[in-house]
């Protein structure tokens, strides 16, 4: 692989699951010294939380796993479908929303991040309305498994 490949992590609001997926992916890329081969970003299907930092539970979960995260929420734009190689949704609704937004000249492969989970947990459940942080910890573990497997498959 000579060129840098681009991965976009997407969820509903870009404040819970996709920032964790982005943070985990970036962390693995640094650990493996693959910065010249991979770049990662994240975005929302909905415009609800544009400009905001992730949910504090997502930030806490990342921080306790050694991941510093400072990006702010943005919405998916048409150009993302041309500039990214892979666009990953967290659940089936994300996928159908993304497919509905994709232009005819879509370069990106759109799919579920969880399709790479060696434990076969394909859906990364939305933890937004949960009372505590358990759903965020589970999301972190799912993202870690899938991002690790994805990078192994594509190296
Ligand atoms: C969420 C959300 C999540 C749900 N992050 N929000 Cl209240 C709303 C309405 C439209 C877009 C967004 Cl983003 C939000 C706030 C932020 N992860 N998950 N809402 C959600 C979960 C289950 C059923 C319905 C909704 C809107």
Secondary-structure map:
Elements: E1 5-11, H1 17-31, E2 38-44, H2 56-63, H3 80-83, E3 86-89, H4 92-101, E4 109-112, H5 134-153
Parallel strand pairs: 1-2, 1-3, 3-4
Helix pairs in contact: 1-2, 1-5
Bound molecules: ligand WE7.
Residues 12-13, 15-16, 46, 48-49, 126, 128-129 line the site of ligand WE7.
| CATH-scheme architecture | 3-Layer(aba) Sandwich
Number of domain units: 1
* Structural class based on helices, strands and sheet pairing: alpha/beta
Bound molecules: ligand WE7
Order of helices and strands: EHEHHEHEH
Beginning-to-end CA distance, first to last residue: 8 Å
Return the CATH topology.
Answer: Rossmann fold
Percent of residues in beta strands: 5-15%
- The radius of gyration computed from the alpha-carbon positions, rounded to a whole number of angstroms, is 14 Å
CATH class term: Alpha Beta
Classified in CATH, the superfamily is Response regulator
- Major beta-sheet overview: 4 strands, parallel
Strand order across the largest sheet = 2-1-3-4
Stretches where pLDDT is under 50 for at least 5 consecutive residues are: none
């Amino acid at each position: 692989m000579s060129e840098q490949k681009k991965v976009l992590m997407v969820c509903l609001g870009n404040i819970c699951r996709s920032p964790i997926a982005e943070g985990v992916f970036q962390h693995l890329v640094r650990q493996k010294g693959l910065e010249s081969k991979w770049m990662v970003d994240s975005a929302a299907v909905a415009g609800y939380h544009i400009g905001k930092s992730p949910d504090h539970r997502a930030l806490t979960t990342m921080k306790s796993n050694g991941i510093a995260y400072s990006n702010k929420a943005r919405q998916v734009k048409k150009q993302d479908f041309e500039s990214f190689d892979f666009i990953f949704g967290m659940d089936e609704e994300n996928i159908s929303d993304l497919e509905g937004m994709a232009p005819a000249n879509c370069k990106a492969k759109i799919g579920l991040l969880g399709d790479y989970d060696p434990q076969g947990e394909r859906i990364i459940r939305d933890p937004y309305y949960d009372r505590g942080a358990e759903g965020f910890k589970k999301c972190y573990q799912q993202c870690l498994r899938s991002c690790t497997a994805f990078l192994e498959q594509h190296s």
